[in-house]
Q: What sequence folds into this?
C-alpha cells in the first residue's frame, strides 16, 4: 500500500472508529430525519405522498440531516490537533480531503439505510420505486459528500461554523437537489415508476451533464485548495490562476466554435446552426466578463495595478471581447430573421478566424509582465499544479457546454410553448391535438 | 514587538557542529519576522544552530516562543526574513521537511476517543510506518515512557501527565532529525521527566529546540540560548 493509501485508510478508520465509540453524528442525523418526517406527516396532513412532493420531503429531510454531520466533520481535527498532525506528516493534504469525503459518504449511506425505510413506512403506498432509488441516492450522496466536505473544511476554522455551513452549503447544492428530486419524482409517483416527460422539453443529456459539471467543479475546487501547492512568490492569490486561465481558454475556444457553427449554418441553411453559433458566442462573452474581472484582481494583487495597457495579452483579449460585444447590436439591428442569421454567421466566421490569429500574434510578442505558463517544454508548471490546472480546464469546458446546452434547451422549450399557444389560439379545430403530443 | 538576543555558552562554538565543523547547519535564521495583523510577534530573530546541537529558547509569556517553534515546524508562515531548516528554505520548501520534524506543542495532537496505542498506530501510518515495524516501535516507546499498562485506555480517561508521555512518544515515533519541544516537562512528575529525558534528551542525537520557563532544568543541556523579550533586548549569562 502506498503511503497516501495507508494514510487515507488510517484517517477513514480513525473517523469511523471515533463515530462508533462516541455516536456523535449518525444518531443525531437519524433522529432528526425521523422527527422531520413526523412533522411533515402532521404538517401536510397527508398519510401518503407521491411524485414531486414525496421527492421534495425526502430530499429536504436528508439534506438538513446531512448538514448536522457536515458541521462536525472536521471538529476533531480542529480541536484535537489533527490538522497539525497531518501537516507534519509526509503525506499530501488532499488525502485528508478524500478520506473525509469517504467518511461523510458512509455516514450519508448509513443515514439513508435508516431514514428511507421509515419514510416509506410513513408516506408510501408502494415500495416499487425504492430499488432504482438506491442509484439516485448513491449519486447524490457523492456530490453532497464532496461539496459538504469542502464547505466543512473551510467553515471549521470559523467561530460561526454551525451557521456558516448551512448558509454556504445550501445554495451550492441547489443544482444537486434539483437533479436528485427530479430523478426521484417519477420513482415515487403513484402506481410505481412513471415515465419521464419527453426529453425534448429538458434537453437530451442535460441532467447528467449538469451533475457531471457540478461534480467536476467540486473536484477542481478541492484540488485548487487542498492539492495544488502554494506558489512560492505569489502565495494564495496565485490560486486565481486556476480560474482565470481556464476561463480565458474556454471563452476563446467558444468564440472559435461559434464560428464553426456559423459555417455549418451558411453551408446548410439550417437555422439550428445559427442558434448554436449565437448561444456559443453568448456564453463565451459571459465567460469573457469573468476573465476580465479575475484578471484584474490577479493583476492588482501581483503587479499592483488593475490594468496594464502595455501588456499585449491583456489588450488583445480586451479587443476580442469588445469585438464580440458588438455582435449583439449588429445582429439585432437587422429585422428580417433570415438575413439576421446570415449576417450574424458571416460576423461569427470572420471574428472566429481573428481569435487564433490574434492569439498567435500575442504569443510572438515579447511580453515582460504577463506570465507564460505553457512557455516551456514541460508546461512550466510542477506536476501538481498542471494536474489541478487540467482538471479546472475540464471543469470550465464542461460548465461552458452545460450552459450552452441549457440555453439551447430553454430556447427549444420556449419555442414549443409558443407553438402550442398559437395552436390553442388558432380557430381551426384539430390544431391543438396535432401539436399537443409533442410537449405533453 | 519582540527582540531576540542569542547567547552562546562558553563551552560551545556557535554555528559549528559537534562532530563535523563543515556540516550544514540544522537551523539558520536571519531577520525572522512574524506579524499577526498589525501586531509583530517576532522580529529580527537570527541564529545558526549546528546539527545535533540543542537550542534553549527563553522568554516571558507573549514573547513569541511558541510562534517561533510553529514557524520552524512549518505550521506557520514567516512574515519576513530568511528561515533555513535542515537545509530547506521556508515557506517555499516546507513540504520537503514533512516527516523529518518531531513537534511537541501545547496540545498533545492525540484524538481523545482513541486509546494511546491506537493514536500511535494512526501517527505511524501517517509517517509510512506500518505492520510489525510499527508495532515494535510503538511497544518500545510505550515501555520507555512507562505507559504499557495504560496504553489501551482512551486518551480522555488519562491524566494530563500521561497524555504528555504519549505525546512525547508520538513526537519521536518516526525518529525525526529535528525535535521542536514546547515545555516538554509540563504536567510530568519526577519519574515522567526522567523517562522523557531518555526519549527527547540531548543523548538522542537529534537537533533540539526547547522552549521552556525552567532554565535551571534545560540550560545545562544547551549549546545555545535564545532569549526573546517583549520590546526589549535581554541577555543570558
A:
Amino acid at each position: 500500500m502506498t503511503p497516501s493509501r495507508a494514510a487515507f485508510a488510517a484517517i477513514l478508520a480513525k473517523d469511523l472508529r471515533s463515530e462508533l465509540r462516541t455516536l456523535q453524528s449518525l444518531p443525531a442525523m437519524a433522529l432528526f430525519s425521523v422527527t422531520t418526517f413526523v412533522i411533515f406527516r402532521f404538517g401536510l396532513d397527508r398519510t401518503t405522498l407521491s411524485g414531486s412532493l414525496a421527492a421534495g420531503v425526502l430530499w429536504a429531510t436528508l439534506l438538513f440531516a446531512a448538514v448536522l454531520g457536515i458541521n462536525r466533520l472536521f471538529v476533531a481535527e480542529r480541536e484535537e490537533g489533527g490538522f497539525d498532525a497531518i501537516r507534519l506528516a509526509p503525506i499530501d493534504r488532499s488525502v485528508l480531503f478524500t478520506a473525509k469525503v469517504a467518511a461523510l459518504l458512509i455516514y450519508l449511506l448509513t443515514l439513508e439505510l435508516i431514514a428511507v425505510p421509515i419514510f416509506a413506512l410513513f408516506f408510501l403506498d408502494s415500495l416499487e420505486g425504492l430499488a432504482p432509488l438506491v442509484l439516485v441516492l448513491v449519486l447524490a450522496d457523492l456530490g453532497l459528500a464532496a461539496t459538504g466536505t469542502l464547505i466543512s473544511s473551510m467553515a471549521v476554522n470559523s467561530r460561526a461554523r454551525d451557521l456558516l455551513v448551512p448558509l454556504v452549503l445550501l445554495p451550492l447544492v441547489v443544482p444537486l437537489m434539483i437533479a436528485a428530486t427530479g430523478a426521484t419524482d417519477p420513482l415515487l409517483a403513484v402506481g410505481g415508476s412513471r415515465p419521464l416527460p419527453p426529453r425534448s422539453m429538458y434537453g437530451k443529456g442535460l441532467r447528467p451533464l449538469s451533475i457531471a459539471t457540478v461534480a467536476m467543479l467540486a473536484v477542481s475546487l478541492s484540488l485548487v485548495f487542498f492539492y495544488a501547492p502554494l506558489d512560492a512568490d505569489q502565495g494564495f492569490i496565485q490560486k486565481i490562476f486556476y480560474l482565470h486561465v481556464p476561463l480565458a481558454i474556454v471563452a476563446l475556444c467558444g468564440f472559435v466554435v461559434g464560428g464553426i457553427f456559423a459555417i455549418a449554418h451558411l453551408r446548410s441553411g439550417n437555422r439550428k446552426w445559427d442558434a448554436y453559433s449565437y448561444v456559443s458566442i453568448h456564453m463565451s462573452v459571459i465567460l469573457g466578463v469573468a476573465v476580465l474581472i479575475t484578471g484584474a484582481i490577479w493583476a492588482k494583487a501581483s503587479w499592483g495595478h488593475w490594468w496594464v495597457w502595455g501588456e499585449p495579452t491583456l489588450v488583445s483579449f480586451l479587443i476580442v471581447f469588445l469585438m464580440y460585444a458588438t455582435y449583439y447590436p449588429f445582429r439585432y439591428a437587422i429585422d428580417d430573421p433570415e438575413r439576421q442569421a446570415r449576417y450574424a454567421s458571416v460576423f461569427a466566421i470572420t471574428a472566429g478566424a481573428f481569435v487564433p490569429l490574434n492569439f498567435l500574434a500575442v504569443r510572438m510578442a515579447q511580453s515582460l509582465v504577463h506570465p507564460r505558463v505553457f512557455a516551456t517544454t514541460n508546461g512550466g508548471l510542477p506536476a501538481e499544479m498542471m494536474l489541478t490546472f487540467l482538471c479546472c480546464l475540464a471543469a470550465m469546458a464542461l460548465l461552458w457546454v452545460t450552459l450552452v446546452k441549457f440555453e439551447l434547451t430553454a430556447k427549444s422549450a420556449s419555442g414549443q410553448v409558443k407553438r402550442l399557444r398559437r395552436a390553442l389560439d388558432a380557430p381551426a379545430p384539430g390544431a391543438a391535438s396535432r401539436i399537443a403530443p409533442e410537449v405533453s | 514587538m519582540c527582540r531576540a538576543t542569542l547567547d552562546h555558552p562558553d563551552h560551545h562554538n556557535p554555528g559549528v557542529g559537534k562532530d563535523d565543523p563543515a556540516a550544514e547547519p540544522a537551523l539558520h535564521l536571519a531577520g525572522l519576522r512574524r506579524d499577526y495583523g498589525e501586531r509583530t510577534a517576532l522580529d529580527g530573530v537570527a541564529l545558526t544552530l549546528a546539527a545535533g546541537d540543542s537550542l534553549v529558547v527563553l522568554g516571558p509569556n507573549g514573547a513569541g516562543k511558541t510562534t517561533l517553534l510553529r514557524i520552524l515546524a512549518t505550521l506557520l508562515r514567516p512574515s519576513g526574513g530568511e528561515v533555513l531548516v535542515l537545509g530547506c528554505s521556508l515557506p517555499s520548501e516546507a513540504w520537503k521537511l514533512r516527516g523529518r520534524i518531531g513537534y511537541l506543542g501545547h496540545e498533545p495532537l492525540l484524538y481523545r476517543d482513541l486509546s494511546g496505542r491506537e493514536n500511535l498506530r494512526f501517527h505511524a501510518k501517517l509517517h509510512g510506518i506500518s505492520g510489525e515495524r510499527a508495532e515494535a516501535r510503538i511497544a518500545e516507546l510505550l515501555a520507555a515512557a512507562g505507559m504499557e499498562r495504560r496504553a489501551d485506555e482512551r486518551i480522555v480517561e488519562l491524566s494530563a501527565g500521561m497524555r504528555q508521555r504519549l505525546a512525547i512518544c508520538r513526537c519521536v515515533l518516526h525518529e525525526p532529525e529535528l525535535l521542536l519541544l514546547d515545555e516538554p516537562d509540563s504536567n510530568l512528575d519526577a519519574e515522567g521527566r526522567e523517562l522523557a529525558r531518555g526519549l527527547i534528551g540531548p543523548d538522542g542525537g537529534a537537533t533540539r529546540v526547547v522552549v521552556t520557563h525552567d532554565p535551571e532544568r534545560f540550560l545545562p543541556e544547551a549549546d545555545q540560548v535564545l532569549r526573546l523579550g517583549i520590546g526589549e533586548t535581554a541577555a543570558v549569562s
About this structure: Chain A has two domains: 1-195, 232-440. Chain A is about 75% helix and 0% strand. The radius of gyration of chain A is 26 Å.
